[in-house]
Write a structure and sequence with these properties.
This protein is an alpha/beta fold. It is built from 9 helices and 8 strands. The chain has an 8-stranded parallel sheet with strand order 7-6-5-4-3-2-1-8. Helix 5 links the parallel strand 4 and strand 5. The structure holds pyridoxal-5'-phosphate. Pyridoxal 5'-phosphate (PLP)-binding protein, which is involved in PLP homeostasis.
Length: about 220
């Protein structure tokens, strides 16, 4: 087993950046706090972590609105699927949404951006493994969705993927990187507890690490 916990994950991330010839801090570590008990989240906050990921809007509101009210200056990233009817709540809470995977959702976010005069950063999620049960646009549809998000004026940061479980993730990371390059996008949200070092080697700019920081969910 590789070492875990926030300190160990930071060290492993620095080492992965160095091994890939990338600058220290080139990759943003998103600590995925979904379903974790509050005590664990507070401990990671106390260790200085400021960027967190959640996969459900309501759960994230319940956890982070009180912590922000206490003064926690955190950056929050939505990494789970977003229903259009929750776009308003998501836009009010999150600094970035990694799961924009269809035009209707992009259009809803664009309307909210107009109304609010601000928008979370946007990543287009691509279902690189074409898994029927998984969110994300098809690889063939990614260029068109990227163009649509840009035309709507949303702050597009990059692409995101979740490779199929039990498969070598590297071909998926490479596919995503190629799509980002041909679309002139810098941001790559890819890599989780089991494969973030491989993702950094393939150009990830944002890794989403949960259990390796906090311990097993529900554990
Ligand atoms: C839960 C989750 C993660 C974190 O998974 P771990 O394996 O615990 O690191 C990353 N990305 C997404 C989209 C998730 O839902």
């Amino acid at each position: 087993m590789e070492p875990t916990g926030i300190g160990a994950i930071r060290a492993r991330l620095r080492a992965a950046e160095a091994a890939a010839g990338r600058a220290a801090g080139a990759v943003t570590l998103i600590a995925v706090s979904k379903v974790q008990p509050e005590a664990r989240v507070r401990a990671v906050l106390a260790a200085g972590q400021r960027v967190f990921g959640e996969n459900r809007v309501q759960e994230a509101q319940g956890r982070w609105e009180p912590l922000r009210a206490e003064g926690a200056a955190v950056e929050l990233h939505l990494i789970g699927p977003l229903q259009t009817n929750k776009a308003r709540a998501a836009a009010g809470l999150f600094d970035a949404i990694h799961t924009v995977d269809r035009e209707r959702l992009a259009e809803a976010l664009a309307r909210l951006a107009q109304e609010r005069g601000a928008s979370p950063g946007v990543f287009v999620q691509v279902n690189t493994g074409r898994e029927p049960q998984k969110a994300g646009c098809d690889p063939e549809g990614a260029d068109a969705l990227v163009a649509r998000v840009r035309a709507l004026g949303l702050p597009l940061r990059g692409l995101m993927c979740i490779p199929p479980e039990g498969e070598d993730p590297v071909p998926h990371f490479r596919l995503l990187r190629g799509m980002a390059e041909r679309n002139g996008l810098d941001g790559l949200s890819m890599g989780m507890s089991g494969d973030f070092e491989a993702a950094v080697a393939e150009g990830a700019t944002h890794v989403r690490v949960g259990s390796a920081i906090f311990g097993a969910r529900g554990g």
